[in-house]
Amino acid sequence: MDLKVNGELRNLGEIDPRTPLLWVLRDELGLVGTKFGCGISQCGACTVLVGGQPVKSCSYPVSTVANAEVTTVEGLARSDGELNAVQQAWVDLDVAQCGYCQAGQIMAAEALLRANPNPGDDDIDQAMAPNLCRCGTYIRIREAVKVAAATRRSAAEASDAAE
Amino acid sequence: MTGLNYADIGDVVPIVTGERRVVADAYAPDDVRIGKLDRRQFLKLTGLVGGGLMLTFGTPKALAKGAVLQPNGYVKIDATGIVLYAKNPEIGQGVKTSLPMIIAEELDAAWDDVQVVQSPIDRETYGWQMAGGSTSIPGNWDPLRRAGAAARSMLVEAAAKRWGVEATSLSTRDSHVVHAASGRKLAYTELAAGAAAMDVPNPQSLTLKKRDQFRLIGKRITGVDNDALVRGEPLFGIDQMLPGMKYAVYQKCPAIGGKVASANLDAIKAMPGVHDAFVLEGNGNAMELLPGVAIVADNTFSAIQAKRALKVEWDESDASKDSWTHAKAEAERLRKESGPQVVNTGDVDAAFASSAKQASGFYTYHFVSHATLEPQNCTAWFKDGALELWAPTQTPAQGIGSAAKVVGVSPSKVTLHQLRCGGGFGRRLYNDFTCEAAAITKRAGVPIKLQWTREDDMAYDLYRAGGFHQMDGAVDENGKVTGWRDRFITFTNDGRRPVSGGGLGRGVFPAGLVDNVRLEQTALPWMNRCGAWRAPGSNVFAFVFQSFLDELAHAAGRDSLDVLLEVFGEPRQMGPRGMHTGRAAGVVKLAAKEAGWGRELADGRGMGIAFYYSHAGHIAEVAEVSVSDQKQVRVHKVTVAADVGPIVNLSGAENQMQGSVVDGLSTMTGLSVTFENGRVEQSNFDRYPMLRMPSTPEVAVHFVDSDYPPTGLGEPALPPLAPAVCNAIFAASGHRIRTLPISEEGFSLA
Ligand code: FES
Ligand code: FES
Q: How far are the Cα atoms of B26, B142, B496, B719 from residue B491, in angstroms, in the given order?
């Protein structure tokens, strides 16, 4: 079985098709940025993008992903290593405490901003509600989403102007 | 009552201000061992799986000669750069950033020039290395300043020699030594080789900076791991991989104390992807290795599948029968009888007899779980009589001692790599998961990663114990609080002392503040393990005492703020480790002022105030809430005022305060662990509903600028939150909350 992850086609060999995407990423592909928190779709630590949509990879059998494009936190930075707008906002606002939930938070925020470039407070709260932070960094996450949204919008304006 | 030994459970957290207490076998390795894996081969292997996994090790003593300046375990400077070592486990409290900041300040290194490396576990070099009790800052403040200053003075000496000038004519700034008179300037990296030849000065002889000379301390510095975190790099215990590693799970008896009678091991071993399955007897210590069945598989999914298919016949003859329902009934009975006194000052009976008003209330709080978001795990490799551990633990030295015991080797044969912890909150003070991993790798003969599921994590925590307080209070005709009685029903694991955080003592509020105080304490036997949970004791006592003080204020018809300030009385220090009433009053006034205490509020809105002193921190909080007819509570804003001495890292400090408020609110609102027939009734987050973003209030943080030595911030901002919110709910609705979580009284968060 093959899986397209972060733009690369990866061969999984013989694998139990019921294996949750989470464990395929972590154990088989060594992409350990995606985290295990609950295994039952309650915490969002395992959030990745499948076809641009946020999914809980702990509850997503790998067989159902087959032809879609998977993006994990490792796939967000540019190929030259530069962080994307969401990652940069998370660094600059010093969002993390333990940091364990943050890959999932970042992926949820990335999905939100791809769908809605200018989210209001309620949009942010709704989109981020599936993601638990045991350390309670929600206040900074909210801010960071807004900063990332602004960065993305100004980048989009700049590229529009260049065209 | 049980075959288990709970002797090692108790307060493993040292008291603040750097006091060292031995909690494990002394351990002092000669040097850091990169270990039994060939590092090159290891990197190649892990590179192949695509994660780019790499473990970094510090070697502070190994390179102490030649061109490298390394006057102590904290600073290493050579021609290529400046490395500072972070000694304590990072559990989200920010010490991997704040501790090196203290070194860099006195070293006068530019923060951008510094590379921070997690130090190895080495008692001789680093002394106490642990994360707990909010001790990292107070315990390391002075030694780390001197460590930085020592290196700085050697660099200055080296420059003085090179230029042939007096050391006193030189100054330092941004990783350079400067000779102002001649305009000459040299980088530390250029001076390192010369400085390495200088004598290391006596740390006590060094002159440290005055507060107004600080350039880094007090600034907003972002976490040193932030970049790696947002790229998903393998920083955590759970992220470790070893060549040939297998994935292990461990099933213990759902009722603690149960043993394995039989298990379908053959069927399990025949399952696809399963490498091995076996029974471990346990070592009789509830803190180390409980009996159970280990399954070792090719990947986590196969291991979890096999665990689901595992059928164990448990021998529960010695197992826990703990029941919350039964405990509640016992408490209901005991609250009417007087119990053993732990504090009795003044004449309590006379105070009640002569009182103008009295109030009474029976307070209850449930057990709760730590629920670190990263479930417990440990990677372990037993090979050639030596054990190597990659453990997300708050107490690495204790982990080494316990694991050594479990596999039957000397602690000198155990190497433990400390890794970033996905939350601590006290859970990882205990090394049961480390011991399990050690026992499993030894028996399986392969390197393993032990992974607890969330269900394991909830079922085998060291819970914050529940408790019950029959409170009675008296006020005189002037409305002054004159009598205070607490009949406390708590729990004991070992039959001798209350569980961690479950004991009242002389330092507890309002002993020493109210003239006539009687505290009684009775402990119910309890088998399920209890342990330290963020701000042990304080996290529940604050709720009871600060709520009840509010009850007394209302009984007297007085403003709660006035009563609180009157209780503090004249500014004074209450014993060597106690609070300072002047600092307490200071934060209470500041929080009240910033929150606009006393201003007119809309109907259905209310404000509550609470103060608590814990872990050497003085913290007051004011909550503003509204309560609907359906008992839906919206917390609009929490105003926090803290006096913890100078702030080291403003960004980290603020984050801790906000996080403590959110954690406090989350826990008081809907979190509870209940037990019946020895078993925990909640198994995952669906029945343990932590707070989510939409319910998160605005949090305003104010630090008092004080000259006291700095103290820790991981814990003290949590305790005042619950009483501040409950007092606000009373102000808004007239309903006095006496049970946590408030969901037990029908309230929920909007
Ligand atoms: S691990 Fe997938 S939602 Fe918690
Ligand atoms: S930062 Fe620790 S769980 Fe979110």
A: 31, 38, 10, 20
